[in-house]
Amino acid sequence: SSRFFQRSHTAKERTLIMATEATQLLPTKPQYEQPNGRGYKLVTVSAVIFLVLLCTVVVNTGGDVVAINHQLLHSSSVDDQSKNSVFPTSFLWGAATSAYQIEGGANDGGRGPSIWDKWCTQSRDNCNGESGDVADDHFHKWQEDVYLMEQMRLKAYRFSISWSRILPNGTAAVGDESGDARYSKTKGINYDGILYYNNLIDSLLESGIEPFITLYHWDLPQSLQDRYGGWEDRSIIEDFARYARICFQFFGDRVKYWITINEAWTVSVHGYEEGSKAPGFVGEDVGGTGRPYLVGHHLLLAHARAVDVYRSEGYEHWYRRGGDNETGLIGIANSGDYRFPLNPDIKGDVKAATRAMEFQLGWFSDPIWRGDYPKSMRERLGKRLPQFTRQEKKLLRGSADFLGLNHYSSAVASEPTSPPIYGGYWADQFVNVTDDPSWKKSFMGWNIAPDGAREMLLWIDRRYNHPLVFVTENGMAANEPDLEHSLHDEDRIEYLEGYIRGFSQALSEGAKLGGYFAWSLLDNFEWGYGFSKRFGLIHVNYTTLVRTPKASADWYRMVIKSNGGSIPP
Fold first, then answer.
1. Burial of residue 51, with CB atoms counted within 10 A of its CB: 0-12 exposed, 13-18 middle, 19 or more buried
2. Which one of 103, 263, 358, 455 is the catalytic residue?
């Protein structure tokens, strides 16, 4: 059924309207955009009449009610559904974003340039002729966005810190890491950036939303890229540790959950092999240059060094909100697409499917949970895959309290019958990847295969001996050519419902899942695609920056309220 009523209302609806107006509790919050282009305000209705407790009414600025969210009239049934949920009561339901994709304010508040600022301006082909200079302008509109999160009942919000907003030149003064930067002005630190994130964190906590911080989500300070080549040089390891230490010092007393690196696989392959993301390097020889593997090696060591700082210097004990016995947690967020063997009865296809996952999720998870790169990578890459020293292995193994899983899609894998005619990373793994013709596709062209969600979690559970996992990204881009299509995003609801069901099945089978973050809270700058792909639960008009919750936002609110119990088994 439609999420919005028309202008003609029944007597019952008019009663609700009059009761709402009688409360005179219209919040002074930002306006939302309706399909006809007029502005509307979200009304949070409180007690006077019992029926009013059960709904949220949307009114326009002139006072005429044009929409009632009728799903909220069934809150008692939602409470009943929560009793049947397989998710624990401590489960964190959240949404995720990243700094460059939503913040904007590129030249505001002392921020320095990142590699994405440069790459997007180098060629119109790089970012669809667009950039994240303004994006969703979250830098100026964060209070409005926190209010939207609160209305959705989010329990957690995953966001990333812009490295160059904290350290515009990438580093602080040499030697300053030995002291506490909170108590003395430290050369190189942008305290306006610190204030911005402090305010955001405090506002989230005041709204009952757990901050879940990612230290690096692809936006390396351009100064470090210029100085020594960024992730290609070992200098990045200590620079990342210094940056992490500053974040722990300023925010660690209130932040329980930390992620060091987001999708090291994407940074390595898309940034240093395919050239589809900043800094945009392309592999050159058929055998592969080894460049993505060196970058991946440094990303892993930077992760391990940041975790070492967090633990050995006592920052895990700075977290105060949970009591004396509760400490902060730190992990890594890795890409994980599941691979179904084309023929489960053919040994070669089964091995190919496993090898494909080892070359993606295993590449950045095995060293942490098993002590070294996957055996298949060692065998196929030889000397092109760097070695860890004994000390580095010791630092890496166990360097995560949880695994963040970014899962969107699956594919079918089989063993090739002849050598590849192309080179680089995709040839290195020696796997044929195809689709199941029965699968639908998202607007990104990615396969929609909810069964893969269950299988991916179970694969992780078996391989890494029952680790704590958070689904740190899951979502889809839908074809939304206009606001009307965006607001009625049933395809996204179908996708999210299927995938959450798949994760819940893995949970029922013994996997250890602590939370789920929908990607994304807002429509945003989708990297090389610019603003052409929309993943958000909330529509953003990129001209006016008006936010309008989609049907999926309302649906997700009910999922959270029922603790996942509203999703049919």
1. middle
2. 263
